[in-house]
Amino acid sequence: MDRLLLCLQQWKFLNLVMDLLYNSVIIIIPMFKYFITFFVFLYFFCDVKTSYSQNTKDTLLKQNEHFSNAGYFSVENSPRKTLNFNIGWRFFKGSVEGAYKEDFDDNSWEGVNLPHGLEILGDNASGGRNYQGEAWYRKKFKISESERNARLFIYFEGIMGKSKVWINGKEIVSHYGGYLPFAADITDVVRHGNNDNTIAVLADNSDDTSYPPGKQQSGLDFSYFGGIYRDVYLISTQSVYITLPQLSKTVAGGGVFAATLSAKVNKADIAVKTEICNSEAEPKRTKLVTTIEDTDGYTLEQVSESKVIKPAETYSFNQRINVSGIKLWHPNNPNLNFIKTEVWVDGIMVDAIKTRFGVRSVKMNGPKGLYINGEPFNEKLIGANRHQDYVHVGNALPNSGQWRDVKKLREAGCNIIRVAHYPMDDAFYDACDEFGVLTTSANPGWHFFNFKNELFEKRLYEDTRNLVRKDRNHCSIIMWETALNETPQQPGHVMHNMHLAAHDEYPYPGFYTVTDIQEAKKGGFDIYYHGDDENVNSFIRECGDGNEVDNWYSQNAVTRVKRAWGEKALLDQAENISKTFSNLYGLPPVKLGGALWAGIEHYRGYHPDPFLGGLMDMHRIPKYSYYLMKSQISPDVKIENIESGPMVRIMNELTQLSSEDIYVYSNCDEVRLYVNGKVVGVQKPEKSYGHLPHPPFIFRNTFNFMSLKSIGRNRAFKYEVKVEGIIDGEVVAEHAKLYPLRSSALKLEVDDENMELVADGSDFVPIRAYVVDDNGTVKVLSSEKIHFEIEGPGSIINPMPVKSEFGVVTALVRSDIVSGEIKVKAYSNGLKGAEIILHSRPMKTAAVYNKDYLNLSKKNVKMNVVNIDSGNTSQNTDAKKYNDEIKHLHQQIVGYEQELMELRSKVKE
């Protein structure tokens, strides 16, 4: 393998040399003046190729090592097959009669792969600009004759809204709610061999008050972006098998459920509950072998137990495992292990899966604060809220995108992410486990309870149980938000029943329900949001934004700024957020910390503007506040695969609009600043920032744009500002910036966080195009239209061209199902173009799809782009007027609700 990699590298190098030789050929033109004219023309108006490799690191991170499938990891040589069912669908946006029937003609439908959103959204999809209504998906597939005696299950991670699923014209399952997985046994409805099966899915994201969240999108702080927007799996097992939690009728049942009863130093007591089904007509003596392994596959402990399981019945094995020499999970040292589960019948292994598991204990210790693994966690829980939507694709974010979000927020300094306001994708929680980010899980809800329909309450209880079953094995989750967010009108008995249902599903220590203090007391919850009880732990669920808003209708605030608004706005946002951080760091131990609203910009249903107060914009590009937060991490905290440790960052772009004061964010003891190699000064952190662990360093009256004339008039010159971070007299970090000259070229970068691009037809990576000068310095004041093109097995998601903001623009590049080299080019009039080469890798998980059906679908691939309504004449004028009035009233109602929540937060119980 090493020789193969070396040969590939040498082959790539040879190709690079050949490219350079080819591009160095000069055609000599006899007349010198014509040569000069031709050269100038090429330089300014043609694309000059610049080649960049995708990654500078030796290896890319493999997605299959990071993400579970249907809640577990596969075991090599296991009879169980967990198959990718995302590829080869056909899609139609709208209502269609009879689309569930096998013989329905879908030849004109669009070909898509999952995860899939209903449309390509614009830069602003807030205020109800997205489609709401019915959408249909269809797919043909074959089941091998060898699977005739297998049990077959279809598993959906998430379909927005209400959905129905048919196979071969027979309805097999319906589901209400857009954020939790569901599954169905399809063994008796599929055909085997060379016979086609047809699956049809109706996905309807229209408003419906009968299930949570229940509120109309026009009155909601997030959006119901539709589609089959999470992964789908086809699961094949033997007749004796480990069950799926979603299909279990046993409380706290289904699948493998692991809980740490106690953990200290390198020892732990673990409870493992495993549910096995015998679907045969005769009893089966079944042996369960449970092994605790580290990530290298080394066995730490193993137990086994046998039981005769009656025909057509399930049995739950309850095992206690005491293990020594195990590495415990901790936010700053997130060690993970595997629980391997093997099922044996008559000496033959009939099923096996792995559950990734962080062994840790959690205790909310009242006035003493949070304890992890028997020790006080002496850091404040400081983090941010997160919605799942992403620019252009809505909720249809691939696993790699979920992982990158968590990684970026962890590198910003978040040791906790509060989910808003629903359970996240499994890949999100997988990433939190991996990076040591504490987090929450939440029932879907916001400002709404349906008193008129008993189904709503019934479905709340069902959601609560399914929520715990989905996320119970994730060590990163320390709080369970079972009550509906910001819904003071929800009845006390309902909240109490949800609290009890959650504890029924997780009957072990270290499980804590949480909601706002007034509701928590009514519902008997374990801990509080925004609490003031000296003996009950509490957490501030949202902070850093609401107090800065002018009013809840306009919603203008210095904390809500776009990157395009420039340095002053970004610095003002950071300065205001620093006050929030100062308050959080000053809290007593009983108050655990708080989460900024919010970590990433997001779309909203009720307001025409996106929420702009994030640490990152919707493209996941950091703002100044991101680096302010990052600088609060102790330089001693160093986490594997996370950019951590000592840091220093200049927050000044050195333009004609830049401040004379140069702000520097750092977690070092002092900072030394140079201008053109000469020391200007050494500063200690500012003293007026309260409890902030690492206040900014401010070098006042240091940059004067007009003084640059004396350096070089009418010619290019170099002006560099460099800073060094110093701890105990040693330079441990540095950062430099150059004065920007005139724009000359584009520069491309792949913002993949070193995660491989998988050729599964839906994975994508952001490609950043920067407008730069001859030195490669980004021109933040530029606003250029940039066009991207692609060659190879991939496509560009967002419409072209795109306009740069603060010197950068993003193209989302999606993989095909064929792996290979993808070349991305960027052009802009008058600037040198650029190109970058990346490689998509083959899928590791086997996929099920009909190639003929897929090839026909490819002919119909098109871009469903949201169009801005410029006056739809087909809509009745009066109806449009009334709809606009309704939307206006919804905004007013939400404004009043927000005011109410703000007033309630100031009331002391």
From TrEMBL:
Domain Glycoside hydrolase family 2 immunoglobulin-like beta-sandwich: 259-360
Keyword Cell cycle: no
Residue ranges occupied by any Glycoside hydrolase family 2 catalytic domain in the UniProt entry: 368-495
InterPro entries documented for this protein: Beta-gal/glucu_dom_sf (IPR036156), DUF4982 (IPR032311), Galactose-bd-like_sf (IPR008979), GH (IPR017853), GH2_Domain-Containing (IPR051913), Glyco_hydro2_dom5 (IPR040605), Glyco_hydro_2 (IPR006101), Glyco_hydro_2_cat (IPR006103)
UniProt keyword terms in alphabetical order: Coiled coil, Glycosidase, Hydrolase, Membrane, Transmembrane, Transmembrane helix
Occurrences of domain DUF4982 (ranges): 661-691
Single GO MF descriptor: hydrolase activity, hydrolyzing O-glycosyl compounds
Domain Glycoside hydrolase family as annotated: residue spans: 749-836
Pfam family, one: Glyco_hydro_2
Record domain Glycosyl hydrolases family 2 sugar binding: where: 128-236
GO BP: carbohydrate metabolic process
Signal peptide: none
Keyword Manganese: no
Domain of life per record: Bacteria
Bilayer-spanning residue ranges: 20-45
Entry coiled-coil feature ranges: 879-906
Family classification: Belongs to the glycosyl hydrolase 2 family.
Protein name: DUF4982 domain-containing protein
